[in-house]
Amino acid sequence: MSAIVVDGSFVREALADLVRIDSRNPALVPGAPGEGPIAAHATRVMESLGMEVEILEPEPGRPSVIGRRRGAGGGRSLMLNGHLDTVGVDGMERPFEPWIEDGRLYGRGAYDMKGSLAACLGAVKALRDADVALAGDLVIAAVADEEVASLGTMAVIGRARTDGAIVTEPTELAVCLAHKGFAWIEVEVEGRAAHGSRPDLGVDANLAMGRVLAEIDALEKELAARPAHPRVGRPSLHVGTLSGGTGWSTYAARATAGVERRTIPGETAEGALTEIEARLARLRGDAGPGGDAPLRVAARIALSREPFEADPDGPLTAALVRGAVEALGREPRRIGVAYWMDAALLGAAGIETAVFGPAGAGAHEVEEWVDLESVERTAETLARAAIEYCSRVEISP
Hints:
Shape: elongated
Distance between the termini: 18 Å
Structural class: alpha+beta
Strand order of the largest sheet: 1-2-6-3-7-15
Mean pLDDT: 96
Order of helices and strands: HHEEEEEHEHEEEHEEHEEHEHEEEH
Number of strands: 17
Low-confidence stretches: none
CATH class of the largest domain: Alpha Beta
CATH architecture of the largest domain: 3-Layer(aba) Sandwich
């Protein structure tokens, strides 16, 4: 491989500059500035690195930035994907004043995932400094709204499709090849409102919901007994929300439960809904214990995201693993994770995808930090993976 040297000072300064910019997602924090200011900054940095830059804004005030380092032609194209938005800062003393202590940089977004974006920029700079010409295009996609609805990555897929993509979410310098999906399923029980003194007229949706919850509990026990996926474990579900009724003296006319079903590769949101529907069908048609009336109950998917699994033997995985070996001096772990990422959207679009990023802690927490050495090693890994995946252009002397 080429002599790739990451400019550590550049990476640290790039990360600190990103953390200083408030990029809280306005869908999570009303009135937050969103990605506009940080997208403008990312644009300037990418242009300074000689990249062609394009701004995508599928919704007003929610821009994503695409930076492209043109290849000579004939090689595969590669996207380095990272998100610009962060969650809120409640409880943090100085979220936008980055500081370094014991090799760690602290601040909101340092770990999730501005350290990764700094690594992407550092990778492009390392290739430029080493005067490496690639056959295929190398793209940085700095995207909006990953923390909520993934507006940015969905827009990028339609505009800047590449052959491969490395999502640079933090993985503790492991190669992530799978993650779970989820389905948010709303279950609604219909009762009949009546005064509390008129049991002859009222049907209590809240009590009826108890029968639904018993069926959901039985389904969770069934899921726990199923074979686990080798990288992400078993499927699961839980009831995240419950609501129903309007007052103490009124029979509840409606009760709802918000069920989150975590899916593993090979499962679908529609399949998860079908499993719940099969349980509810028994309650609709059969009298319950003590002769309870059949229930009027319905379920629907409110939001879903599919699971992700990479080809462990594909060319992108091979390039990423070899790049990591060169950068780390050891074999990287191959892992799966339980949480969802934009990798699933890229993979579903037919883009060969894997995940690799730095080490740290505190995503969505009061104290957040990223290990600076791991950010530099991530940058080197990305640069080396790009050389192999996109193919280096050999220049005759």
